[in-house]
Design goal:
This protein has 180 residues and is mainly alpha-helical. The chain has eleven helices and no strands. This is DUF7041 domain-containing protein.
Length: 180
């Protein structure tokens, strides 16, 4: 039976093609070529042995910017960017990945193995936190990194002033009073 309305038939065909294109490009239906291309454009920083929490914060921002939300994709990106000494700490997870929560598992293991414990950070903070040869601003930044709570600024400033040579404490105290 011939089409009674050729314009309507053409419109239906166009809508079907548009629907097929949308379904083909949906996040769960992308072909492996598209996924591989997306992976190749993500650049993660080198793993930070001294501060894995900061490294994961950077990695997660990169994932957000590149709209990577799939657990397996996150896991794959992390495992591909780890150096040999680090990947050995999670070798079992890489060789036999979990079925679910792969990314969380590898993140937790890396933090457990490489991150400094809160107790150790607090101990170092209370012992001065400063390293010799650093500028006062670097000592203060280091003390802030060691602080267990961002709301402990008054304690950090008190410890910081105690670290400074007696000759400059009055100047810093006066600066703090006019700054606050």
């Amino acid at each position: 039976m011939p089409d009674s309305n050729p314009d309507l038939t053409a419109q239906v065909r166009d809508l079907q093609q548009q629907l097929e294109a949308l379904l083909t490009n949906a996040p769960g239906n992308r072909d492996e070529t598209t996924r591989t291309h997306t992976r190749a454009t993500v650049h993660l920083p080198k793993f930070a042995h001294s501060n894995p929490q900061l490294w994961f914060a950077q990695v997660e921002r990169s994932f957000r910017l590149h709209q990577i939300i799939d657990d397996t994709d996150k896991f794959d990106h992390v495992t591909l960017h780890l150096e040999e000494d680090v990947v050995l700490a999670v070798e079992d997870l890489v060789i036999r990945p979990l079925n679910e929560n792969k990314y969380v598992a590898i993140k937790n293991r890396l933090l457990q193995n490489f991150a400094e414990s809160p107790e150790s950070k607090l101990r170092r903070l209370l012992q001065g936190g400063g390293k010799s040869g650093l500028k006062p601003s670097e000592i203060l930044a280091n003390m802030r990194r060691l602080a267990p709570d961002p709301g402990s600024e008054n304690i950090i400033l008190t410890l910081f002033l105690a670290e400074m040579p007696a000759s400059i404490r009055p100047t810093l105290t006066a600066w703090e009073e006019t700054d606050g």
